[in-house]
């Protein structure tokens, strides 16, 4: 998913829809939903070009260490 990839890489994303399956991308600030609103799209593109995109972060557990956590849980369950 482009919104997830942009969030992980801290790149602004504009979604041309009024909803997303990945609400966390909107909550942390990398993704904005503009729907079919051309004025909003223009405003957001302008902010992106001008370097005025809102500050963002990564959602909890988006640190690239999922495999380590899964292995740890499996080891604890087996042990």
From TrEMBL:
SUPFAM superfamilies: UDP-Glycosyltransferase/glycogen phosphorylase. It comes from the Bacteria. Coiled coil: none annotated. GO terms for molecular function: isomerase activity. InterPro entries: UDP_GlcNAc_Epimerase_2_dom, WecB-like. Keywords: Isomerase. Residues 2-74 form the UDP-N-acetylglucosamine 2-epimerase domain. The keyword Transmembrane helix does not apply. Belongs to the UDP-N-acetylglucosamine 2-epimerase family. This is UDP-N-acetylglucosamine 2-epimerase domain-containing protein. It comes from Hallella bergensis DSM 17361.
